[in-house]
Amino acid sequence: MDVKPLVVENLTIHYYTLEGIVKAVRNVSFSVEKGESVCLVGESGSGKSTIGLAIVGALPGNARIVSGRILVNGVDVLRLSQKELEKIRGREVSIIFQDPAASFNPLFTIGQILSDVIKYKLNVKDKNELRKLALSALRMVGLPDPERIYNSYPHELSGGMLQRAAIAVALSTKPSVLVADEPTTMLDVTLQAQILDLLQDLRRKLGLALVFITHNLGVAAAICDKILVIYAGSMVEYGPVDEVLTSPLHPYTKRLLECVPRSSARVGRLKYIPGSLPDLRKLPPGCVFAPRCSEVMEVCKSVEPRIVEVKPGHMVACHKYSR
Amino acid sequence: MHATSILGDNVGLLDVIDLVKYFPIRKGVFGRIVGYVRAVDHVTFSIGENETFALVGESGSGKTTTAKCILGLLKPTSGKIVFMGKNIVELKGSEAKWYRRNVQAVFQNPFLSLNPRMKVEDIVAEPLKVHNKDLPKDEVKKIVYDVLERVGLTKALAKRYPYDLSGGQAQRVAIARAIVLKPKLVVLDEPTSALDVSVQAQILNLLVDLKNELKLSYLMISHDLSVVRYISDWVAVMYLGKIVELAPTEELFEKPLHPYTQALLSAVPEPDPKIMKSKKRIVLPGEPPSAINPPPGCRLHPRCPYAKDKCRVEEPKLIEYERNHWVACHLYTRR
Q1: Is A246 found in the same domain as A223?
Q2: In B, which residues are within 8 Å of A162 by CB distance?
Q3: ipTM value greater than 0.90
Q4: In a shared domain, residues A41 and A11
């Protein structure tokens, strides 16, 4: 049987701060098949980026993984030593971020950065071979004139080109899992469309398992197979993208979709979700969404809902659906 | 009154006529001018009373530069900005103050636009103090608290500092500061781009309510076409310093004429898998060229799928192709 490239099980992550323990991620589970893309969707503070960082083993020092497993090609990366982790990070799992300009060292050319990654991660010593691999990585992401890009410094490239270069660096080691943390948020819509197309294309061609983190439900609809909706660190709904977006089950997903203005039709007055995110240091008992939920019941205020499979592959954590 | 006054006799609340803003590029020890960034290149439009006019376009299209010229933060290279019959480029003294009182702004990031060392109530009171020095203290306080209540903020928040507010609350404070003088026009520069969707919806609703209640006009600068469709009456699409299309909102979204507008609209992702699958995507290759040496002829021609020989040499004029629907493209000739 094939091992899934990425399996996340019951992941719980806390941040230790001077103001208390922030329960950023609680009991999140999902898996990604080869060539599949799963979107983590949520608003600021939902914990989506924390999950992304945990997958690549790059959590900040004050974060503790309280429980759970992250299996990359069957290996639990949370149990590895730093040295063993180095062999997986950047090799089997890569990440790209929102601001490509911040992910490049401005003092090195794209070519130097790219060759360094290939040199250390793939153990390639031969200079000509290195250059060849770097150029082919630049070509793979559709950058025109790779020779010129190879010799360019980050500030000489536009945002769209730089994000392509970041994708080239991330994929130059041929990883099986790519985490993309809001990679198109800073780009204009036409460039966003180009980058989304590129990621779709590469995912199919290379059989990448793609974890795509976004707050934009439209972007999620454009790129994912499955969607995982997170609210205040808890997964509230998980399922195929078509189902979650056209017949959402969880009240949070429903309300969130109603908030979004559409370019395809003029809507009447926009709905909104009253209240604000709970304090992640003092979580309410019961369902985290209960204080803002319009369909709240008595049980929601005291008992935390378990995630249940309502339809095949479509899961939701809400008392309305638990029997 | 509306944008037909681009060339007609009608006068709007604010008429931008043939606005040009070039930024010189200097080089060498003597600061010799070696070229210009043509940020805004002959732009004309008009905003009517109680109307929301949106300028949309991608980075570098000149929409923010246009807004800065209107706010008086930049001096135009040439052209006129006429507000209630007066050319504001030449205003001085009390007349300039009158203009600033009537035209206010809300920016993208409230944490950058609010003074971190001032309390919310002082932030909102400041415009009153500047423009009406004789107003008694308790009167100021009353107005401030009324305005804060109007934008949906509780009294308890008035004593707080900006860092103590959420993004949505801070943006409400910025809106309160903008409307406290009862202006005629508010420039909204990406007012919801930094907010989460659930908060964005609240702010957009608030803006719509305020517009109706206070008979405000908005100049909305945005790259988010979904937001623009929700909030505006008129839309002008800018590309490399030029308006390429201008029409009432529904007309523009339902019948986009310019290839650039069509591409822009087709690139917006929608949270509806059915629409995403049926959508015909028009992909423009490459990225917008630099505004230092814009391409000759039509500025879109290097990326346009319909470019003809004429597009490479002759610059298309903005024409009224259908009633109220203006487009600058050689595919459309005046009928």
Answers
A1: yes
A2: none
A3: no
A4: yes
